[in-house]
Amino acid sequence: MVLSHTRRLLPRGFYHTGILKQTKFINQEQSSTTSSIPSAEDTPLHIDESCVQRLRYVSSQRGGKPVALRVAVDSGGCSGFQYTFELTEEKPAENETVVERNGCKVYVDDISLPLLKGSTVAFVEELMSSSFRVLNNPGSEGGCSCGTSFSPKMS
């Protein structure tokens, strides 16, 4: 299932106004001398090893083509905002930050990034389902029991 990454948070056509930042790349390569998850100051989003393994599996099922995960926040869901995920073989858009770990990439648009800062993207396998999820979102005040929507903290 492919979900659209069109934002309802901004007026239609906002991304085509030319007021976009350059694509940013953040690398979370794992090394033997550092911890496997960089600190929140180093990266706005953490990629769990389970996410890396799932993206590699999907890539192998698609004949070895590189596959990235696009993560976004959209209005809706039972708590006000919901996480959306899309597997893509496309290059990142100009308004997206690329977070990379061990060769696997996650794209996050500049509008969603502040709402996801400090979170972890993981692939969770349970008895009834398996899916990509955003875990430990420090910007979330609460959420639904299935973990697909959240209520942001109000400062």
From TrEMBL:
GO MF term list: 2 iron, 2 sulfur cluster binding; 4 iron, 4 sulfur cluster binding; iron ion binding
Keywords: Iron, Metal-binding, Mitochondrion
Gene Ontology annotations of biological process type: iron-sulfur cluster assembly
Subcellular location: Mitochondrion
Keyword field contains Secreted: no
SUPFAM superfamilies named in the record: HesB-like domain
Record flagged with keyword Nucleotide-binding: no
Residues covered by the Core domain: 45-147
UniProt cross-references to Pfam families, sorted A to Z: Fe-S_biosyn (PF01521)
Gene Ontology CC terms, in alphabetical order: mitochondrial [4Fe-4S] assembly complex
InterPro entries the record matches: ATAP (IPR016092), ATAP_core_dom (IPR000361), HesB-like_dom_sf (IPR035903)
NCBIfam families: iron-sulfur cluster assembly accessory protein (TIGR00049)
Family to which this protein belongs: Belongs to the HesB/IscA family.
Protein name as catalogued: Core domain-containing protein
Organism field: Galdieria yellowstonensis
